[in-house]
Amino acid sequence: MSPRATESTESSESLLALIAALRRKRVVVFGDLIADEFVYGRIARVSREAPVLILEYDATEIVPGGAGNAANNVASLGGMVTLVSLVGRDEPGDRLFKVLPKSVDRAGLTRPRAYRTPVKTRILAGGIHSAKQQVVRIDRHTAEPVVDAHRKAAERAAKRAIKTADAVLISDYGSGLVQPRFVAELAAAVNGRVPILIDSRYALTRYRGLTACTPNESEVEQVLGVKIDDNRRVLERAGRKLLEQTGMAAVLITRGSRGMALFEPDKPTVHIPIFGSDQIADVTGAGDTVMATMTLALAAGGSFEQAARLANYAGGIVVMKRGTATVSAAELRRALLRQGFGG
To answer: What are the pLDDT digits (tens) for 307-336?
Structure first.
């Protein structure tokens, strides 16, 4: 066996051992909990009233999105997760509360009466024998600012929860619940004892000195004002600039069909090719899956590269599923074995 093959086998064996170590690691997920609603229908005909399609309604499904999806993925991978967030006492909030898996600890959820649960409704349409495609998305209450009293209640719950955590995952979808000032307080409280990771859609560079972040390529392009495409030099400069601006120990840039790129200070960039097919079914919530896997792997003692490689497998699996989905530890193991110990 060649040295390269031996190295590859050892890498895969270490990843299999890391998957086993994920079980029962405690992760606190703090951030924006969103009700992801999916409305399914069949295309019937074109309307006489306007040049639009008429859909015959089939069904409605609601699943936890945002921080809820990240928490679901941690639980699905075998971790123990406490979700800290806000949920309204409205109808979407009631439905969301009911569909949260029992494996997700709800002790950190605050339900203010005046708070309205953010909802993202996706309308999906298709024929009887064809896959349903997203036609339109309707966002409700996702841009409403979080009032100070509600935010402070959630922050108190987060401070209590992190005392027994093996890792902390911050999910910032831009509602205002997650504030850089408070995240800095959490980082000071854990004081390097456990990894603390941030997934921020719109304000990544406002968070400094954390363990890692996992932005996608379009988010990096937006925050740095660059265009990456297939240009490895631009990608390299962007990754190194993010490391410098955020002061993080690692930056993992997800690149869709181009895979991932892991940046650490004073180390060569690790380029990880996409796992599985590039014929992606649905990217909804894939970033949450990547972040959850990365966080749990670091909590289990994995290196940044090991955690990134596991996250790459998880991302490749979940994008082949429809809707807001999760990945299990068993699926990760099967994916590694199907690769023939390819690392």
So the answer is: 999 999 998 888 877 666 789 999 999 988
